[in-house]
Amino acid sequence: MPPPNAGPWGDSWLSFGCAYADVRLGVSIYTSGSWSGVQPRNVPDNGDRLAEKLPPGTRKVLIGRMKTAAADSADDVPVSWLLEYLGT
Question: For residue 11, what pLDDT is reported?
Answer without folding.
Answer: 81
